[in-house]
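Model: You mentioned two targets. I'll fold them one after the other.
Researcher: Yes, keep them separate.
Model: Target one:
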Amino acid sequence: MSTVELIFAALSLLLTILILSYLVLGDNPMFRFAAYAFIGVAAAYVVLVTFDQVLWPKLIQPLINGTMERRILLATPLLLCLLLLAKLFPGISRVGNVPMAYLVGTAAAVTIGGALMGTLLPQSLATASLFDLSSNPAVESVGVGGVLVDAVYILAGTLAVLLYFYFGTKSRPNQPARQPGWIEKIGKAGQFFIAITFGALFAGVYTAAVTALIERVSFLVDFFRQLGI
């Protein structure tokens, strides 16, 4: 092991011990130091990548060496960036509302479009394709009955979850607005499917955490083994 590798390994060992101190001492200054160092390094990395991959090649360099048409096209995003900096100063912070509104509107449009085209429609098509017995390869292994049971189960779960997030209500005189009773009942079934999903997600996160812990412990063992300890 070279000197440079030894220094980086020792630093990794120190940070690993500082992070693992949370398991014994709980929230302590050593753990907070390691967490702050990680946040600082991650923030610096994001800033450098943003400057190297976005600001310099797509804004600064075209403004310096680009054509006049290119500079005019870049004037609008540059102006919005400058207006956004006004949010740092309370006296002129209202000027930054224009780029903020643009960012919020764009983000909302991208989110809605992504949810519709990337989740809702594919989920609907995938659920409908389960009933296409002619192209379902699972028919040969579990039979038509098994495929239909799975398809109905998935369809019922999908509808129950969607109805759980149904926020439409019926207004009644002198009474608080309530959802129809049948929607509330199906929505409770949707809670069951949501609980299963969150359980699976938690199991995945827990497995990833345990895997990371095993990797760090293995690193410690290998480090001390190379030092002959």
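Model: Target two:
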Amino acid sequence: MNKNSISELNRFFSAERLSSYGKNLSFDEQLKNYNYNIDLCKAFYSSLNYFEICFRNSIDLSLTDFVAGGDWFNILPLNNESLIKISDAKNVVKSKNHPVTHDRIVSELSLGFWTALFSKKYSQCAFQGFLIKKVFSNFPKREKNVKNIQKKVDAIRDLRNRICHYERIFHFPDLQKRHDDLLFCIRGMSEEMFLQALEIDFFPIPLS
């Protein structure tokens, strides 16, 4: 790469940002790692998409059943943090001049909202046990416990957030395991969703 190209790219890439892709490497080598990181993020995109859609809608359907068909977010004993997120979701829907419907509220809630339902905050709530049973119905019995599920979904949320905010993942030594856990969780919710996700998955290292 010539000096003019490097100079132009340096206008937009901060030295601090690129140094995280190889502090003692040349600019070309840092940029190569940066682009490889983008390729890795792209390889996770499809499975993250299937996971988040499946996870969110499985929880919504399960909680709707739990409260016998009502709007669970207006019924369940949720904490203030969750209630604020629900209120914010309603406000977002209103700001778009849409009717505040059940489905629109659900679609505006963040992944962090959904994963929090499996946290210790709700360990004394009956709906958490119901979710474990219903949402992850295909999990092996030894895996179907809140501690294991919370660990897996929190790790997926962390990975998803890093990818969505254009952060590094290429340096993680356990990307293969993260990928396998992601597909494992999709399969734990739905075999059909797993097969669809697997069909378009192109993670560099094949799922064993």
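Researcher: Noted. Anything on target two?
Model: The CA atoms of residues 133 and 141 lie 10 Å apart.
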